[in-house]
Structure formats: structure tokens, C-alpha cells
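Researcher: Good morning. I'm working through a list of sequences from a screen, and I'd like to move beyond sequence-only analysis. For each chain I'm collecting a predicted structure so we can compare shapes side by side. This is the next one on the list. No need for commentary yet; just the structure.
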Amino acid sequence: MSDALETLAGGPSAALPLPVAPTAPSGQPLADADAELYDAWRKHIERGFENNNRMFDRTLNAFMYPYWVTVGMYIVLFVVGISAFVVAARLSFESGKEMYTLLFGGIGAVAFLTFFLTRPLQALEENLQFITWLGIIYNTYWTRLAYMTDQTTVQRDLEAATNETIAKIKDLLTTHADRSGKRPGLR
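Model: Good morning. C-alpha cells for this chain:
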């Protein structure tokens, strides 16, 4: 990453959202005026991006783990429904025990109906959209932070960026609650 930062910090063709390279009080680029201070600044920016990437990965994993658990549960529900139907059919043909047939047939029917009434694929697709939306909000916030270099307005800029991010997250949560409430299901 340091090679990329070295290339990007000084050039206009930035592929990463990097702040403008600092200058010394004389107006000279900091890399020329004080190489040690510039190196410390560059390492600070590098660590900041690494920390941001780690935080984003943790946030993404916090959303993706329940997603995959839900996928697994829906697969189990589907398999239980099919298996119960198969067991019910086999019991009715082989043993003639109607009670077992009704029991397993009922379990299969309930599992199958639950699977289709709750529309799991729709819910999972919507949740992926919300995860993507959250990622965009997150990356936008950190990109804005990286570009805050004016010391006279940094507090005001930081507060504005934070407030806008909070508003966007609240909008995301409200939209998620609205869509979740409109999904068909057993209530």
C-alpha cells in the first residue's frame, strides 16, 4: 500500500481517496521541505486507511454472518418440508398408519408454506441492498474525513459530515423498517 500512497499522494491521478499532500509554511511541498515529517504524515494516512478497511470489514462481516445463517436456516426449512412429505408418503404406502402420515404431512406442509409465505429470497435480496447502501454511506463518510485538511474549518466540516452520515443511516433504518413491515408473512 505504501507504493500506492507514494504514487498517489503527489499525483493528480489518484485511485484512492487521499488528501492533498501537505505543504510546509513556506509553500514548498512537505516531502521536499521535511522528508521525515512527510513520511510520518504518509504513514499516518496509510494507517488510517488500513484501520478504516478493518472497520469496514468488521461491519460487513457483522451483517453477512446473520445473512448466511438465515440462508442456512431457509435451506434447512426447505429440506425439512420436502423430507417430511417424503416420509409421510412412504409411511402411508408402507405401513398404513394414518396418524404418522398426518403428522409428517402436516409438518411438511407447514414448513413448505412458511418458506413460501415469508418470501425468503425477497428478504435476502433486500438485505443485500441495504448492506450495499450502508457500505456506500460508510465509505463516503471516511472519504470526506480524508479530505478534511483545512484546520480553520475542520471541526465544522467534521460535524457536518457526521450529522449527514447519521441522517443517512437513519434514512436507511427507516426504509428497512418500512420494507420489512410490508413483506408478507406470518404475523
